[in-house]
Design goal:
single chain, about 280 residues, six-stranded mixed sheet, five-stranded parallel sheet
Length: about 280
């Protein structure tokens, strides 16, 4: 079995990926990004690297014998003028800055190509966590009605329309009105922002309306930054009064699926994986 190197950003997902590898007996090595990755990665064979020390990260992955690499977990966009760069990063800086000007997708795609040039096969989390990729249909007892399906279509159109601007992977629509678009703050903050809107435009716990829609942007490399959701997404969507959450089938990872279904059912909400839009 090929050894997997995990380049870990923030959040719980890198740890879940490492735990899944351990359970399936796949050898792994984790490189934690300092200031981003959780200290819990110390439970696995691991090392640390500064965000500006990409050469150090690659050296660690090669020394550990990694063949495949998964880049996973959000990383805050740095102030490039203040980064402490190693020699490799210094040589790459002009190309990195050029990619960064084109947006986060371009920046991630640059690093994917560069890692492949170093001899690694870059894989997506779904290649490792295949059983967690959302299949088409409802997760739980509830399904969207016709009004919610129209909101799902609207939300997907918004994400597609904003692809060229590299804005985000999510939108919230309610009764044909776009309430929020995900930007640099991320999904959780977008949901909290929606919860602060007047109840005249959004749903409530007593009368749920609106849908959080998340799907990959058409032009993004699906090996990095695939949409993911779990119990916290459901909890925040419930607080925002939404009727449900919609994700693209085969284009999103659902963690703790049984608990997600239980929470959604308890709140009278749906979690629904819709077919991949033809435009994507």
């Amino acid at each position: 079995m090929r050894k997997l190197g995990i380049v870990a950003g923030s959040g719980p997902v890198p740890l879940k990926l490492a735990e899944a590898c351990t359970q399936m007996g796949r050898p792994l090595y984790v490189v934690g990004i300092e200031g981003e990755a959780r200290a819990d990665i110390a439970a696995f064979d691991h090392g640390w690297a500064r965000l500006g020390a990409i050469g150090t990260a690659v050296e660690q992955l090669k020394k550990a014998g990694c063949e495949d690499v998964c880049i996973i977990g959000p990383v805050k966009r740095p102030d490039f003028s203040k980064l402490k760069l190693d020699w490799t990063a210094t040589k790459l800086l002009p190309r990195v800055l050029n990619a960064a000007r084109k947006g986060d997708d371009a920046l991630l795609s640059f690093f994917v190509r560069w890692m492949e040039d170093q001899g690694f096969k870059v894989v997506g989390a779904e290649d490792v966590l295949g059983d967690l990729v959302a299949p088409e249909g409802a997760v739980g007892a509830h399904a969207p009605d016709e009004g919610a399906l129209r909101d799902i279509d609207l939300g997907a159109q918004v994400v597609h329309a904003l692809d060229d601007l590299d804005v985000g992977q999510g939108a919230i629509a309610c009764d044909g009105l776009v309430l929020a678009v995900e930007a640099a703050e991320g999904t959780d903050e977008m949901l909290r922002r929606t919860a602060r809107l007047p109840e005249t435009v959004r749903g409530t716990a007593d009368k749920r309306r609106g849908v959080l829609v998340k799907l990959p942007k058409p032009s993004q490399d699906r090996r990095v930054d695939l949409p993911m959701m779990g119990t916290q997404t459901v909890e925040l969507a419930a607080e925002a009064g939404l009727a449900g959450i919609a994700i693209e089938a085969g284009g999103a990872i659902v963690f703790d699926r049984d608990e997600v279904a239980r929470l959604a059912d308890a709140n009278g909400m749906f979690v629904y994986a819709f077919p991949k839009p033809e435009k994507s």
